[in-house]
Design goal:
The protein is mainly alpha-helical and 263 residues long. It has helices at 20-24, 26-80, 86-95, 103-128, 133-144, 148-161, 167-170, 221-238, 242-262, and strands spanning 2-7, 10-18, 197-201, 207-211. Residues 215-242 form a coiled coil.
Protein backbone atom coordinates (compact mmCIF):
# COMPACT_ATOMS: atom_id res chain seq x y z
CA UNK A 1 0.00 0.00 0.00
CA UNK A 2 1.17 3.51 -0.71
CA UNK A 3 -0.06 7.02 0.06
CA UNK A 4 0.71 10.59 -0.91
CA UNK A 5 1.13 13.46 1.49
CA UNK A 6 0.89 17.00 0.13
CA UNK A 7 3.53 19.55 0.92
CA UNK A 8 1.94 22.23 3.03
CA UNK A 9 4.04 24.92 1.35
CA UNK A 10 3.45 23.91 -2.27
CA UNK A 11 0.23 22.32 -3.49
CA UNK A 12 1.96 20.71 -6.48
CA UNK A 13 4.48 18.79 -4.33
CA UNK A 14 3.46 15.37 -2.98
CA UNK A 15 5.45 12.87 -0.99
CA UNK A 16 4.82 9.22 -1.67
CA UNK A 17 4.73 6.95 1.37
CA UNK A 18 4.63 3.20 0.93
CA UNK A 19 5.71 -0.13 2.37
CA UNK A 20 7.29 0.03 5.78
CA UNK A 21 6.87 3.80 5.92
CA UNK A 22 3.09 3.32 6.17
CA UNK A 23 3.51 0.62 8.78
CA UNK A 24 5.73 2.88 10.81
CA UNK A 25 3.65 6.05 10.39
CA UNK A 26 1.24 6.40 13.37
CA UNK A 27 -1.01 8.87 11.55
CA UNK A 28 -1.62 6.54 8.64
CA UNK A 29 -1.99 3.61 10.99
CA UNK A 30 -4.73 5.50 12.81
CA UNK A 31 -6.45 6.30 9.52
CA UNK A 32 -6.29 2.68 8.40
CA UNK A 33 -7.68 1.48 11.71
CA UNK A 34 -10.59 3.90 11.45
CA UNK A 35 -11.29 2.80 7.88
CA UNK A 36 -11.28 -0.82 8.98
CA UNK A 37 -13.52 0.00 11.94
CA UNK A 38 -15.95 1.82 9.65
CA UNK A 39 -16.09 -1.20 7.34
CA UNK A 40 -16.89 -3.49 10.25
CA UNK A 41 -19.54 -1.09 11.56
CA UNK A 42 -21.13 -0.86 8.13
CA UNK A 43 -21.16 -4.64 7.70
CA UNK A 44 -22.60 -5.02 11.18
CA UNK A 45 -25.33 -2.45 10.50
CA UNK A 46 -26.20 -4.19 7.24
CA UNK A 47 -26.38 -7.50 9.04
CA UNK A 48 -28.63 -5.94 11.71
CA UNK A 49 -30.82 -4.36 9.03
CA UNK A 50 -31.17 -7.67 7.20
CA UNK A 51 -32.11 -9.37 10.47
CA UNK A 52 -34.70 -6.69 11.27
CA UNK A 53 -36.10 -6.85 7.74
CA UNK A 54 -36.45 -10.62 8.03
CA UNK A 55 -38.15 -10.29 11.42
CA UNK A 56 -40.52 -7.60 10.11
CA UNK A 57 -41.36 -9.76 7.11
CA UNK A 58 -42.19 -12.64 9.43
CA UNK A 59 -44.34 -10.36 11.60
CA UNK A 60 -46.21 -9.05 8.55
CA UNK A 61 -46.82 -12.58 7.30
CA UNK A 62 -48.09 -13.66 10.72
CA UNK A 63 -50.31 -10.57 10.96
CA UNK A 64 -51.77 -11.26 7.52
CA UNK A 65 -52.39 -14.89 8.44
CA UNK A 66 -54.04 -13.84 11.71
CA UNK A 67 -56.28 -11.33 9.93
CA UNK A 68 -57.34 -13.94 7.39
CA UNK A 69 -58.04 -16.42 10.18
CA UNK A 70 -60.07 -13.81 12.07
CA UNK A 71 -62.00 -12.90 8.92
CA UNK A 72 -62.93 -16.54 8.31
CA UNK A 73 -63.91 -17.01 11.96
CA UNK A 74 -66.11 -13.92 11.89
CA UNK A 75 -67.77 -15.11 8.69
CA UNK A 76 -68.42 -18.47 10.33
CA UNK A 77 -69.88 -16.79 13.41
CA UNK A 78 -72.04 -14.49 11.30
CA UNK A 79 -73.41 -17.53 9.51
CA UNK A 80 -74.04 -19.45 12.74
CA UNK A 81 -75.65 -16.51 14.52
CA UNK A 82 -77.38 -14.98 11.52
CA UNK A 83 -80.78 -15.40 13.16
CA UNK A 84 -79.61 -13.41 16.17
CA UNK A 85 -78.51 -10.22 14.43
CA UNK A 86 -80.52 -7.18 15.60
CA UNK A 87 -82.59 -6.92 12.42
CA UNK A 88 -83.25 -10.64 12.04
CA UNK A 89 -84.10 -11.07 15.71
CA UNK A 90 -86.46 -8.09 15.54
CA UNK A 91 -88.04 -9.48 12.37
CA UNK A 92 -88.86 -12.68 14.24
CA UNK A 93 -90.28 -10.69 17.16
CA UNK A 94 -92.49 -8.47 14.97
CA UNK A 95 -93.79 -11.42 12.97
CA UNK A 96 -95.25 -12.87 16.16
CA UNK A 97 -97.17 -9.71 17.08
CA UNK A 98 -100.92 -9.92 16.70
CA UNK A 99 -101.30 -6.65 14.83
CA UNK A 100 -101.59 -5.78 11.14
CA UNK A 101 -99.52 -2.61 11.52
CA UNK A 102 -95.87 -3.60 11.79
CA UNK A 103 -94.52 -0.38 10.28
CA UNK A 104 -94.62 1.53 13.55
CA UNK A 105 -92.35 -1.07 15.16
CA UNK A 106 -89.90 -0.87 12.27
CA UNK A 107 -89.81 2.91 12.49
CA UNK A 108 -88.90 2.61 16.16
CA UNK A 109 -86.24 0.03 15.30
CA UNK A 110 -84.77 2.13 12.48
CA UNK A 111 -84.68 5.23 14.69
CA UNK A 112 -82.74 3.42 17.41
CA UNK A 113 -80.43 1.60 14.99
CA UNK A 114 -79.56 4.87 13.26
CA UNK A 115 -78.51 6.36 16.60
CA UNK A 116 -76.45 3.27 17.47
CA UNK A 117 -74.75 3.33 14.07
CA UNK A 118 -73.78 6.98 14.56
CA UNK A 119 -72.57 6.19 18.08
CA UNK A 120 -70.33 3.36 16.86
CA UNK A 121 -68.90 5.57 14.14
CA UNK A 122 -68.16 8.33 16.67
CA UNK A 123 -66.56 5.84 19.08
CA UNK A 124 -64.33 4.31 16.40
CA UNK A 125 -63.33 7.77 15.19
CA UNK A 126 -62.03 8.69 18.66
CA UNK A 127 -60.08 5.43 18.94
CA UNK A 128 -58.56 5.75 15.45
CA UNK A 129 -57.27 9.20 16.39
CA UNK A 130 -55.51 7.84 19.46
CA UNK A 131 -58.18 8.72 22.01
CA UNK A 132 -58.73 6.70 25.17
CA UNK A 133 -61.41 4.05 25.53
CA UNK A 134 -63.09 6.24 28.15
CA UNK A 135 -63.31 9.18 25.73
CA UNK A 136 -64.53 6.87 22.97
CA UNK A 137 -67.36 5.48 25.10
CA UNK A 138 -68.25 8.98 26.27
CA UNK A 139 -68.71 9.96 22.64
CA UNK A 140 -70.68 6.75 22.02
CA UNK A 141 -73.13 7.57 24.81
CA UNK A 142 -73.51 11.12 23.50
CA UNK A 143 -74.97 9.77 20.26
CA UNK A 144 -76.71 6.60 21.47
CA UNK A 145 -78.48 7.89 24.58
CA UNK A 146 -82.25 8.33 24.52
CA UNK A 147 -83.69 10.27 27.46
CA UNK A 148 -87.28 9.62 28.50
CA UNK A 149 -88.45 12.86 26.88
CA UNK A 150 -86.98 11.89 23.52
CA UNK A 151 -88.37 8.35 23.72
CA UNK A 152 -91.90 9.53 24.60
CA UNK A 153 -91.82 12.11 21.84
CA UNK A 154 -90.78 9.73 19.06
CA UNK A 155 -93.36 7.14 20.15
CA UNK A 156 -96.04 9.83 20.13
CA UNK A 157 -95.01 11.03 16.67
CA UNK A 158 -94.97 7.50 15.27
CA UNK A 159 -98.40 6.77 16.74
CA UNK A 160 -99.73 9.84 14.95
CA UNK A 161 -97.88 8.95 11.74
CA UNK A 162 -99.41 5.47 11.63
CA UNK A 163 -102.92 6.66 12.57
CA UNK A 164 -102.85 5.07 16.00
CA UNK A 165 -103.38 8.40 17.76
CA UNK A 166 -104.78 11.85 17.01
CA UNK A 167 -102.53 14.86 16.98
CA UNK A 168 -104.99 17.11 18.83
CA UNK A 169 -105.48 14.55 21.61
CA UNK A 170 -101.76 13.88 21.97
CA UNK A 171 -101.13 17.59 22.41
CA UNK A 172 -102.94 17.48 25.77
CA UNK A 173 -100.29 15.26 27.33
CA UNK A 174 -97.51 17.02 29.19
CA UNK A 175 -93.78 16.46 28.85
CA UNK A 176 -94.03 13.50 31.24
CA UNK A 177 -96.69 11.84 29.09
CA UNK A 178 -99.48 12.58 31.55
CA UNK A 179 -102.77 14.46 31.41
CA UNK A 180 -103.46 17.29 33.88
CA UNK A 181 -105.10 15.97 37.04
CA UNK A 182 -108.25 17.29 38.73
CA UNK A 183 -109.62 16.44 42.16
CA UNK A 184 -113.16 16.40 40.80
CA UNK A 185 -113.48 14.44 37.57
CA UNK A 186 -116.61 16.38 36.65
CA UNK A 187 -114.52 19.53 36.49
CA UNK A 188 -111.94 18.01 34.18
CA UNK A 189 -111.80 19.18 30.56
CA UNK A 190 -113.49 17.19 27.86
CA UNK A 191 -110.59 16.01 25.71
CA UNK A 192 -111.58 15.70 22.09
CA UNK A 193 -115.23 16.54 22.75
CA UNK A 194 -117.26 18.39 20.14
CA UNK A 195 -120.53 18.72 22.08
CA UNK A 196 -120.76 21.53 24.61
CA UNK A 197 -123.14 19.63 26.90
CA UNK A 198 -122.70 16.13 28.30
CA UNK A 199 -125.37 14.30 30.31
CA UNK A 200 -124.38 12.83 33.64
CA UNK A 201 -126.67 10.10 34.96
CA UNK A 202 -127.73 10.51 38.60
CA UNK A 203 -129.91 7.39 38.86
CA UNK A 204 -131.88 5.13 36.56
CA UNK A 205 -134.70 7.67 36.10
CA UNK A 206 -133.00 11.02 36.18
CA UNK A 207 -130.05 12.72 34.53
CA UNK A 208 -128.88 16.30 34.62
CA UNK A 209 -126.98 18.25 31.98
CA UNK A 210 -123.49 19.32 32.86
CA UNK A 211 -121.56 21.98 31.04
CA UNK A 212 -118.12 20.68 30.28
CA UNK A 213 -114.94 22.72 30.44
CA UNK A 214 -113.04 22.90 27.20
CA UNK A 215 -109.29 22.97 27.49
CA UNK A 216 -107.70 25.66 25.37
CA UNK A 217 -104.17 24.87 24.34
CA UNK A 218 -101.84 27.74 25.11
CA UNK A 219 -98.43 27.89 23.50
CA UNK A 220 -95.61 27.42 25.97
CA UNK A 221 -91.86 27.29 25.66
CA UNK A 222 -91.89 23.54 26.34
CA UNK A 223 -94.57 23.00 23.69
CA UNK A 224 -92.48 24.90 21.15
CA UNK A 225 -89.41 22.86 22.03
CA UNK A 226 -91.34 19.60 21.75
CA UNK A 227 -92.60 20.64 18.34
CA UNK A 228 -89.04 21.36 17.23
CA UNK A 229 -87.95 18.00 18.63
CA UNK A 230 -90.71 16.24 16.69
CA UNK A 231 -89.66 17.90 13.45
CA UNK A 232 -86.04 16.88 13.99
CA UNK A 233 -86.99 13.31 14.86
CA UNK A 234 -89.04 12.96 11.69
CA UNK A 235 -86.20 14.38 9.60
CA UNK A 236 -83.72 12.09 11.35
CA UNK A 237 -85.82 9.03 10.55
CA UNK A 238 -86.06 9.98 6.87
CA UNK A 239 -82.45 11.07 6.39
CA UNK A 240 -79.74 8.75 5.06
CA UNK A 241 -77.00 11.37 5.32
CA UNK A 242 -74.70 10.50 8.23
CA UNK A 243 -73.31 14.02 8.58
CA UNK A 244 -76.79 15.54 8.67
CA UNK A 245 -77.94 12.91 11.17
CA UNK A 246 -75.03 13.73 13.48
CA UNK A 247 -75.99 17.40 13.40
CA UNK A 248 -79.59 16.46 14.20
CA UNK A 249 -78.49 14.38 17.20
CA UNK A 250 -76.60 17.36 18.62
CA UNK A 251 -79.65 19.57 18.10
CA UNK A 252 -82.03 17.00 19.64
CA UNK A 253 -79.77 16.57 22.67
CA UNK A 254 -79.75 20.33 23.17
CA UNK A 255 -83.55 20.57 22.89
CA UNK A 256 -84.04 17.71 25.37
CA UNK A 257 -81.64 19.43 27.76
CA UNK A 258 -83.63 22.67 27.50
CA UNK A 259 -86.92 20.84 28.12
CA UNK A 260 -85.46 19.12 31.19
CA UNK A 261 -84.37 22.48 32.57
CA UNK A 262 -87.86 23.95 32.08
CA UNK A 263 -89.74 21.03 33.66
Amino acid sequence: MSAFTPNVFAQSDFKKIEGNDIQNNPIFQDILEKIEFSKKQYLKSQETKNTLDAQQKLIDEQRTAAQESLKKELQRMEKNYEDFTPRNAFTKYVSQLNTPNHDIFWDQFDYLQAKISLAKDARDSVLSQGGTYFDAMKKYVEFAKMPKIEMQNIVQELNIKHNLAQNDIQSYFDVNGKLPRYENDLESPCYGCTAKISKVQIDSEKSVPLKRIFLEQKPTKIAELRESLSELQNEFLKSKNVIEQKKMVFEMNEIVKNIQELK
